[in-house]
Amino acid sequence: MLLLSTAYNFIPVVLNERVENAYAEALSKANGATALTNVTYQESWYWWVIGTTRCVTISGEAIR
């Protein structure tokens, strides 16, 4: 997290890594799946006094 940085609130930092991790976690929850279709992406921001926390949620239909 970048503390007290106003630019951080508008520039997505480490977005690719968050998306990749969320996709891998969603895929691992479906036993034997090799990919996801009809993927839905949701990002949640939580504002704290010293910065922000951003969470990415990926959901979809698992295929083999």
Structure description:
With 64 residues, the protein is α+β, with helices and mostly antiparallel strands. The chain has one domain (7-63). The chain is 22% helix and 39% strand. It contains one helix and two strands. The protein has one helix at 15-28, and strands at 35-47, 52-63. A hairpin with a 4-residue loop joins strand 1 and strand 2 (52-63). The model has no long low-confidence stretch (mean pLDDT 81).
Q: Largest beta sheet, briefly?
A: 2 strands, antiparallel
Low-pLDDT runs: none
Shape: elongated
Number of strands: 2
Keywords:
alpha+beta, two-stranded antiparallel ribbon, 1 helix, 22% helix, elongated
Summarize the structure.
The protein is of the alpha+beta class. It has one helix spanning 15-28; strands at 35-47, 52-63.
